[in-house]
Every structure is written in structure tokens, then in C-alpha cells.
Amino acid sequence: MLVVNPNFYHPFLQLGGDCRKHTRRLREAQKVFPFDEDKDFYDLLISAMPLKSDLTPLYLHLTQLWSRMGRQYFDHINKSVIQTVIEGGVADGWVSAQFLGSFENAVVYGFDPDRELFQNSYHKPFLLHSRRFHYMPLGLWQQAARLPFHVARTFTSRVTEQGLESADDSIETTAVDDFVAAARIDKVDFIKLDVEGAELDVMRGARQTICNHRPQLAVCVYHKLEHYYEIPLLLSQYTENYIFRIGHYSPFHLFSETVLYGIPRELYYSHPH
Questions:
Q1: Contact assessment for residue 240 and residue 264, using Cβ atoms and an 8 Å cutoff
Q2: 14: Cβ–Cβ under 8 A, 6 or more apart, which residues?
Q3: Mean pLDDT over residues 219-226, rounded?
Q4: pLDDT value of residue 14
Q5: Is 237's pLDDT higher than 80?
Q6: How far apart are CA 89 and CA 80, in angstroms?
Q7: Average pLDDT of 244-261?
Q8: Domain segments of the chain: what residues?
Q9: Which of the residues 39, 77, 188, 270 has an alpha carbon 20 to 30 A from that of 22?
Q10: Cα(230)–Cα(193) distance, rounded to whole angstroms?
């Protein structure tokens, strides 16, 4: 007997009357992906829209897709050309350290407003001593702002819809476009975003950088159900001649640890997969 993890569905999947809307929008986003295996993942999402009592077929399908994946944030990208990285969501710096190790001579600008988490990190000394990592204690957003911030358990603190007066804390934010201009960065090669549901807002503040610099992208889409279609559809409007791929990195949860990759076509086909 196969026992399916009861958390197969993410808690936000209380669909009610929105099931048809989500299904229609997922079908729209599915057209952004040229490869059948990525379309297959969207078929799985769509088949899960009506909640089911027997999850065994969906679970088996998910584990099959998951088994094809490699390393989160590194699948599909062309590592050889990456020299400048903007990372939204440093957390404890573990992924930042992997970037320094994988992208030879690259400089990483890491943004995260949770100062305490980074200050107490095991990886902090290595990152700062590398002289190739620059920590920015700011949130990324559409523009510079002061926003209410909810301090949660490790790695899940986030901007909240509460007012400033009732929030746990507040943070200062900047936009990618504003930062790139102020820092006079000639070329951004890679943008990674795992910012607990703020990804869509961050990309709206990175439109000029995406259009003019043509960076490779690794963007988490699993924090909100709508992001599975809103983010690929938005990026397909911002970009030209990009290849979009999906990476899913949880064998137990369908709506978790899903990353959208965007790679300029000339870079995608110039390295082995």
C-alpha cells in the first residue's frame, strides 16, 4: 500500500469557486513552455485542481517528474557566463555560498531584510571574507518603500498586508532597477528570487534590468498559487527570445519548491543539458 503525504496539497489550495479560473490561467501559462516535460508539470497542477480523496496517481506522477530534477536554482542555466548575480532572499547564505563556488569570479549582491538571520549564520564569515559577496539588508520590491514585515520561523519572514502600526516590524526596500542604476552595474547576468511571495512585485521593479541586461532567471513561483501563472506570463511579456523551464524540488508536496527558469535562447543552446 502506498501512503501519500497528507501535505501533498499546499494549504493555500482552498479553491472553492476559483478552480475554473485557476485552471484556465494555468493553461495560458503552460503555453509559455516549449518543452513537453514542463507542460507535463502543468498538466499535473491542473489535474490537481479539483481536490481528490485518492492522491496516489498524482503522487506517482509527481515523484516521476521530481526524479528528473537536478540542483535547485542551477538547473538549465548556463553557469559559464555568470559574473554578476542579484540574489533576492539570502536567508542564512547557504545558496549564496553555492553561487560563489559555482560561478567562478562572480560577484553576488545579496538582499535580505532579516539581519538577525544573516548575522547569526554559519556561512557569514566565508561570504564576507570572499570579497565577492555584498550583503544588502534591504528587501526587494517594486520601488523604494517602508513596508510592514512579519517575522516568522526561520526562512519564512515576509512582507505582510497588515498596516505598519500592527506589523511585527518594518523594512526598507529598493527596486532592482534602482539598485543597478545607483551601483552603476554594467551587466547583470543572473537574478535569483526566493522572497516569500514578493516575487511578482520584485520583477515589476526589475523590468528595465531584465529587458536591457537579459539576465538568466531563477524565480520561485510556489508561495502563491497565482504565481504559477502570473509570473511566467509577466516574464514572457518582459522578455524576447527566452527559453522558460520549470524545476520542482519536493517529492512530497505538489505546490512547493517550484522554480521558474528563464534563459536567453542564445545562452540556453550554447551549453550542454
A1: no
A2: none
A3: 94
A4: 57
A5: yes
A6: 23
A7: 92
A8: 80-224
A9: 77
A10: 15
pLDDT at 261 over 90: yes
Shortest CA distance to 93 belongs to which of 224, 210, 192?
A: 192
Q: Greater confidence, 201 or 150?
A: 201
The identity of residue 98, as a single letter, is Q
The C-alpha cell that represents 168 in the structure block: 511585527
In angstroms, the CA 236 to CA 244 distance is: 9
Instruction: State pLDDT tens for residues 15-55.
Output: 556 888 889 999 999 999 999 999 999 999 998 877 776 77
The CATH T-level fold of domain 80-224 is: Rossmann fold (3.40.50)
CB-based contact 246:38 (threshold 8 Å): yes
- Which grid cell sits at 109? 549582491
| CA distance between the termini of the chain | 36
- Whether residue 1 has pLDDT greater than 90: no
pTM, rounded to two decimals: 0.91
All three cell numbers of 18, joined, read: 476559483
| Average pLDDT across the chain, whole number | 88
Alpha carbons 85 and 215: distance in angstroms, whole number: 9
Distance CA(212)–CA(65), nearest Å, equals 34
